[in-house]
Amino acid sequence: MPGVSNRTPLRPLALASLITNIGLVVTGAAVRLTGSGLGCPTWPKCTEESYTTTPEMGVNGVIEFGNRVLGVVLALIALACFIAALLEKPRRRSLIVLSLAVGLGIPGQGVIGGITVLTDLNPWVVGLHFLLSMALIALAYALWRRTAEGDRPRRTLVPAPLPALARLLALVSAAVIVLGVIVTGSGPHAGDEDAKRNGLDPATIAQTHADLVFLLVGLSVGLWFALRAAKAPRPAIRAAGILIVIELGQGLIGFVQYFTNLPVLLVGAHMLGACLVWAGTLSVLWSLRERPHHQPQPADPTPATSPATTPAPTPVA
User: Cys-Cys with 143: which of 14, 21, 25, 105 at CB 3.0–4.6 Å?
Assistant: First the structure.
C-alpha cells in the first residue's frame, strides 16, 4: 500500500512504548505510595558507591531501583522506535519526528527524577515528573496511531462543531490531570515520611478537582449524544462511550479513596485511571479524523461506451 511499509516492527514497538510509559507512571506511584521515594537516596547512583540497590536498603530500595530500571527499558524501546522509523521504506518524516520526541523525553524524565531525589521529593517537582509522563504518553499514542495512517492531508469525519467540542473536552481532561497532581501534592502520600507537602488545603483542592471531573463527564456524555445525532462513524461513537465508562470508574475510585482516607491500593488504581482517562481522551480526538494512505480517485460521471456495445444504426426502408 502506498505510503505504508511493513518492513519494520515500528507499530508494535510504538504500542510497547505507550504501554511502558503508562507502566512507568504506575511504578512511580508505587514508589511514592510505599514511602520509597528516597529508597535510592542519591542520583544518578543508587548509593554513593553503587548504581544498584544494596541489601541494607531493603524493599524500599528495590522498589525505587525497579522504577529506575523500567526507565532504562523505556529508553531502549524509544531508541528501537527511532531506528525502526529511520528504516521505514519509504521513510516518513512524521514518524521520525514523533519517535525522536518520545526518545528525547526519556532523559528529560531521568533528569527531573534526579532533581526530585536531590530536592528531597519536592511536591512541585514530583508533579512535574508526572506531567511529563502525560506528555510522553500523548506522543507515544500519536506515534502508534500515525503508523496506521498515510501522509495525505488530514480529513475531518464529523461536522465542524464536534471537533471543537472534542478539543474543549481534551482541555478539561488535561486540567483535571493537572489539578489531580496538585491534590496529590497536598495529601499524605509524599513518598517519604519527611517529605514536605505543597501547603494547600486538601479538602478545597479536592472539591475543585471533583467539580472539574463532573464537567468532564458532562462534556463526554454531550459529545457521545452529539456524535450519535450526527451519525458519526462508529469508531468515534465507540471511543466516546469507552471514555465515559473510564471516567465513571475513575470517579468512583476517587470518591471511595477520599472517604476511606486514601488507602494505598486505591490511590495506585487512581493513578492508573488517570493514564487511562488521558489515553481515552486522545482516542476520541483521533477518531474524529483520518489521513488516507493515498489520494482517492474521483469516479467518472460519464463512463465511455465500448465500441463493441455501441448499437448499430437502424436501416431505413
Answer: 14
